[in-house]
Design goal:
76% of the residues lie in helices and 0% in strands. It is mostly helical. It has one domain: Sodium/glucose cotransporter, CATH 1.20.1730. The protein is globular and about 70 Å long. The N and C termini lie far apart (55 Å).
């Protein structure tokens, strides 16, 4: 591989630009609030696109197109579920969470918010929440590092070990230096790159296979059931795929974007931008996998890498159909998807360790400068643990993404959703919700009951636990007053 390789040069320029944004954000990072939430200064465009980019990891350009390529449109139920879940999250949680976190001690993290919202003096709610975040996110971070390593490995012919460090180094660098602002600004660039790649690629594939009619005839000739949305599915299978949408209510890296918006007024506009971006990206992803069926059945000579690993369908189409410089930009979109999600997850882990353990239990009097540097040290620590988890290429860490998504969705989703819409929720109700949600996911996954995705029973049982336990106690006067003030603020400004 020569250094003049246009794809390599494009990657280097792209990574350098991301790190430069990190150094620009460094100048705006003066205290822990800046490092963890960007000083609550995100406008609607950055809020919308960074929420989208942090959500859509490498599976958007690798996993989902590969699934569509293999099985046809029956795999697209997950996209429908995600769109519905994301919309409801923007509608019911985004604005309310923004004001509730401000009215409850100007909370910077989810454990911080739970602790203030429910007046938890024992620290139990904060500790359990932070532990859930650290366990599930370290697994999540490892899966992102594996996806980045696979990309470098297949694009540049590197060994897996070298690719592991190459893929992780840039993300760690700009997250370490610039914190939340760097992550949000880079996410905005990365979201733009992802939508460019996902709209351009299916159009070029269509042209290469002779237009819509020819493409559809070729897909039908390969297997008519590719068009069947119900092929090889069951009712439980469809519900399980759509159940992914429930996860949005509990993902700390997405909820942090809502908490960081500059005001509730920005949320409605951000929702429209984010949902448009998401629908176009998911539509493009499905189209890449679907049209890829026609392209590779018409060109069997170049189909070998995809037949060996169907998740490479986007990578191979980009390499074959585009000028190497454009292909470099398109493949950078995969790197963008991986980096945007990984950086958010590193930062959420860092904030849990810094705000919810170090500041709360070890150094209550720590200065803001000290806390920012502890936050940076925690980014490195979590990253090194995640790299260690990802070091064995045989680790099926990517399979754990659905586990981590379900874990957050069931443990935090009902607690976040109900805490912003129901004034009578109590501390014990929140504790019961987190524990029942997390335990249900672990047990259901272990026994693989009914073939149903574990997030669905986890979410239902956690919601019931919150309601039943909250009904057996009652909130304090202070909790009711803060809730009412936040709700009034939300209704006045939305």
């Amino acid at each position: 591989m020569s250094v003049s390789n246009p794809t390599l040069i494009t990657f280097v320029i792209y990574i350098a630009a991301m790190v430069l944004i990190g150094f620009m954000a460094y100048r705006s990072t003066n205290n822990l609030s800046d490092y963890i939430l960007g000083g609550r200064s995100l406008g609607s465009v950055v809020t919308a696109l960074s929420a989208g980019a942090s959500d859509m990891s490498g599976w958007l350009l690798m996993g989902l197109p590969g699934a569509i390529y293999m099985s046809g449109l029956s795999e697209s139920w997950i996209a429908i579920g995600l769109i519905i879940g994301a919309y409801l999250n923007w509608l019911f949680v985004a604005g309310r969470l923004r004001v509730q976190t401000e009215h409850n001690g100007d909370a910077l993290t989810l454990p911080d918010y739970f602790s203030s919202r429910f007046e938890d003096k024992s620290g139990l709610l904060r500790i359990i929440s932070a532990v859930v975040i650290l366990v599930f996110f370290t697994i999540y971070c490892a899966s992102g590092i594996v996806a980045g390593a696979r990309l470098f490995e297949s694009t540049f012919g590197m060994s897996y070990e070298t690719a592991l460090w190459a893929g992780a180094a840039a993300t760690i660098a700009y997250t370490f230096v610039g914190g939340f602002l760097a992550v949000s600004w880079t996410d905005t660039v990365q979201a733009t790159l992802m939508i460019f790649a996902l709209l351009l690629t299916p159009i070029i594939v269509l042209l290469a296979t002779g237009g819509i009619d020819t493409t559809f005839l070729a897909i039908e000739a390969q297997d008519p059931s590719n068009f069947d949305m119900l092929k090889n599915t069951t009712f439980i299978g469809i519900i399980s795929l759509m159940g992914w949408g429930l996860g949005y209510f509990g993902q700390p890296h997405i909820l942090a974007r809502f908490m960081a918006a500059d005001s509730v007024k920005s949320i409605a506009k951000a929702r429209r931008i984010s949902m448009t971006w998401m629908i176009l990206c998911l539509g493009g992803t499905v189209a890449v996998g679907f049209f890829g069926i026609a392209y590779f059945s018409a060109n069997p000579a170049v189909a070998m890498p995809v037949s060996e690993n169907h998740e490479r369908v986007f990578i191979e189409l980009a390499k074959i159909l585009f000028n190497p410089w454009v292909a470099g930009v398109l493949l950078s979109a995969i790197l963008a998807a991986v980096m945007s999600t990984l950086s958010c997850q590193l930062l959420v882990c860092s904030s849990a360790l810094t705000e919810d353990f170090y500041k709360t239990f070890l150094r209550k009097t720590a200065s803001q400068v000290e806390l920012v540097w502890v936050g940076r040290a925690m980014v490195l620590l979590v990253a090194l643990i995640a790299i260690a988890l990802a070091a064995n290429p045989e680790n099926r860490v990517l399979g754990l993404v659905s586990y981590a998504w379900a874990g957050f969705g069931a443990a935090f989703g009902p607690v976040v959703l109900i805490s912003v819409i129901w004034k009578d929720m109590t501390r014990n109700g929140a504790l019961a919700g987190i524990l029942v949600g997390a335990i249900t996911v672990i047990v259901w996954k272990h026994f693989e009951l009914l073939g149903l995705y574990e997030i669905i029973p986890g979410f239902i049982f956690a919601s019931l636990a919150i309601y039943i336990v909250s009904k057996s106690g009652e909130p304090t006067k202070g909790m009711l007053q803060r809730f009412a003030a936040a709700e009034a603020d939300f209704r006045l400004n939305k």
